[in-house]
Design goal:
nucleus, 233 residues, ICln/Lot5/Saf5, PH-domain like, 11 strands, PH-like_dom_sf, five-stranded antiparallel beta sheet, alpha+beta, cytoplasm
C-alpha cells in the first residue's frame, strides 16, 4: 500500500477515460462524480475534474490534462468530513486528512510552502469540491462505506514470543543434570517463578523447583505417617 497521496495517470478508454483498477486485488469502482475540484493543502483548486471512488482508493482525474491525476488509498485517510463552514473554507467540500508516514513537523512545513511548489509527500490535507453542494452528503456516505471496507490492519503476533512456556522432557532433564546440589531449590526465592521469567532456562528451573519441592512435601508426609504408625504399635 502506498502511503499518502500520489500522482495517478493510469487511464483506460477514450476521452478523459477512467482510472485503471487493481483487478487482481478485487478492486471495484463504486461511484463516479463529475464536476469536482480538488484542493491539496493550501494550494489553489484544480479543476475541472472527475472523482472516482473505488473499493480501495479515491482517484481524481483532470478532464483537461489526461496525464494529470491524483490517488489516495482509504487506508491513508485518517479523517474525512463534510465542511460547510465558510470560515474554514469558502466552498462547501469534503475535507480529508492524509497520513504521509513522515514526521508531523515535516508535514506542517508544507503549509508554509509556496503555492507554486507541490510536494505530495508532505500533503496532509485534501478538499474535494463538487459543483453541486447538495452532493456532499451522498459523497460522505460513500466515503464512510468504503472506509469500512478498508479497516486498519492488525499486526500479527510473533510466532516466537520472548518467553517460551513449553518445554520438552529432554530440556527439563538437562536442567536437572546441571544442578549438583539439590538443596539449592530450598534456598531460592519462589516469588518470581511464574509470569516474571527471564527466558526459557530460568523458567525451566522454576518449574523444576516447584516439582521437587512438591516431592519433598510428599516425602515428609510419608515419613510423618510412618512415625505415627510406629508409635501406635
Amino acid at each position: 500500500m502506498a502511503i499518502g497521496i500520489r500522482l495517478f495517470s493510469e487511464r483506460v478508454g477514450e476521452g478523459a477515460g477512467q482510472p485503471v483498477l487493481d483487478a487482481d486485488n478485487a478492486e471495484e469502482l463504486i461511484h463516479v462524480q463529475p464536476g469536482v475540484s480538488i484542493v491539496l493543502a493550501n494550494h489553489p483548486p484544480q479543476s475541472p475534474g472527475t472523482l472516482y471512488i473505488s473499493s480501495k482508493k479515491i482517484v481524481w482525474l483532470s478532464d483537461v490534462e489526461r496525464e494529470k491525476g491524483y490517488a489516495v488509498d482509504f487506508l491513508s485517510l485518517s479523517l474525512h468530513a463534510v465542511s460547510r463552514d465558510p470560515e474554514a473554507y469558502p466552498s462547501p467540500c469534503i475535507y480529508a486528512q492524509i497520513e504521509t508516514g513522515t514526521d508531523e513537523e515535516e508535514s506542517e512545513d508544507s503549509d508554509s510552502e509556496s503555492a507554486d511548489i507541490l510536494d505530495l509527500s508532505k500533503i496532509t490535507e485534501m478538499r474535494l469540491i463538487p459543483s453541486d453542494p447538495n452532493q456532499l452528503d451522498q459523497l460522505f456516505e460513500i466515503f464512510c462505506e468504503c472506509a469500512e471496507l478498508n479497516p486498519e490492519p492488525i499486526e500479527g503476533k510473533r510466532e516466537e514470543e520472548d518467553h517460551n512456556w513449553i518445554f520438552s522432557a529432554d530440556q527439563l532433564g538437562n536442567d536437572v543434570a546441571e544442578i549438583e546440589d539439590p538443596d539449592w531449590f530450598t534456598s531460592q526465592n519462589l516469588t518470581n517463578t511464574i509470569g516474571h521469567s527471564n527466558g526459557d532456562h530460568d523458567l525451566a528451573r522454576s518449574v523444576l523447583e516447584l516439582q521437587i519441592n512438591d516431592q519433598r512435601f510428599e516425602d515428609a508426609e510419608e515419613m510423618e505417617h510412618d512415625v505415627n504408625s510406629s508409635s501406635h504399635q
